[in-house]
Amino acid sequence: PRSNTPQPRSNIGDIPPYVAGKPPTVRPGMTSYKLSSNENPYPPLPGVVEAAQAAVGQMNRYPDMGATALYAALGERFGVPVGDLSVATGSVGLIYQLVQAFCDPGDEVVFAWRSFEAYPIAITAAGAASVRVPVLADGRHDLDAMVDAITDRTKVVLVCTPNNPTGPSVTQTELDAFLARVPSHVLVVVDEAYVEFVRMDDAVDGIATYRAHENVVLTRTFSKAYGLAGFRVGYAVAPAPIAAALRAVSLPFGVSTVAQAAAIASLESEAALLERVDALVAERSRVVAGLRAAGWDVPDAQGNFVWFELGDRTADFAAAADELGIVVRPFAGEGARVSIGETEANDRLLQLAGAFARS
Ligand code: PMP
C-alpha cells in the first residue's frame, strides 16, 4: 500500500468477510426458495404492515432516539426495568456494541466455533482478539473448554444458544455450571437470536439467568421468530450498568421509526406470531425426522435451521439444492445450513437429502 494515502487501522484487513445468504436462483417455470439466511418464511401480519406504513409518513423526522415506546413495550412484555434494556440495529448491532464497550485493543473474546460468523467480524473491528473453541462432534458448545480458554485478557464470552449454524442449545443445568466457573468480571453474552424456537427439556430461562448474575447479558432479535429481519431491531436484556454501557456506544437513531413501530406492533400481535413459530417448529420436527430416516446424522435442531456436516461434499450439496430450487448456506469444506421454510421448500430439502445420501 502507498504510505502517503489514508490507511485504515492495521487490523482492518484481518476482518473476515460476512457472507450473506444468496437470494433464490431465478429459473423459468420454477419457484425457488431462499433457505440461506434463517429468515421467517411467513409474510408480515397485516397489522404490523399497517403500523409500519403509518410510520412512513414521518420519514422527514428523526426517529425517537430514546425509542421510548419500544422500551416500555419490551419492559412490560418481559417484566424487566427499561434501564435493563438496550435496543439496537439488529442483535448483530448489540454484538458490535458489547465488544466495543467491554474490550480494549488486544483483549480476548471467547466463543464457540463454528458459530455466528459476525462474531469474529465484530471482534476484529473493535481491535479485540478472537479465541475460538471448537464445538463438540454433535454441534454443542464445549462449555468446559470455553472456561479453560479464559485468560487474564478475556473480557467477554459469547454463548450462542441455539448455536448458528450447528443447531443445538445449551441446557439450563449446563449454563449454570458454566456460569459458576466463569470469573465474575468476565461478561457472558447469551445470544438468544433463536430462543423462541427452542423446545427441549431443561431449556434455558434467559430472564431468570440474567436476574441471577451481574455479568450476564441476553441478546435477542425481532428478525427470526417475529419476521422483521428487513427492519433491523434487536434488544439486549442486562443488568443496568451493562445496558447503560450498550446504550452509551449505540449508533444515534440506529433503530428507524418504521422499525420501532413494527417491533411494537409485533409485540402486540405476539400470539399470532408465536403460532407461526409453533408451525415452523412442527416443520422442523418433520424435516429432522425425515432426514434421520434417510440416514443423515443431523445434530439436534433447536433453531429454525438444520445443519449438514458435509466436509468436501458441501459445494456439491449446495449445487444439488440449487438444481431443486432451494438455496442453502454452504460453509466451504465444512457443511451447509438450511433454514426451515415453506412446506414446499422443506419437501424439496427432504427430496434432496434422500437423493444426495444415496449419491
Ligand atoms: N445471532 C445469531 C446467532 C444469528 O444467527 C443472527 C442472524 N443470523 C444474529 C445474531 C443477528 O440477527 P439480527 O442482527 O438480524 O438480529
UniProtKB/TrEMBL annotation:
Q: Which UniProt keywords apply?
A: Aminotransferase, Pyridoxal phosphate, Transferase
Transferase listed as a keyword: yes
Q: Where is the Aminotransferase class I/classII large domain?
A: 34-350
Which residue windows does the record flag with biased composition (Polar residues)? 1-10
Q: Name one GO biological process term.
A: L-histidine biosynthetic process
List the Gene Ontology MF annotations in alphabetical order: aromatic-amino-acid transaminase activity; histidinol-phosphate transaminase activity; pyridoxal phosphate binding
Query: What is the recorded function of this protein according to its Swiss-Prot or TrEMBL entry?
Result: Aminotransferase that catalyzes the conversion of aromatic amino acids and 2-oxoglutarate into corresponding aromatic oxo acids and L-glutamate.
**Self-association state and partner proteins as the record states:** Homodimer.
The protein's name is: Aromatic amino acid aminotransferase
Gene encoding the protein: hisC
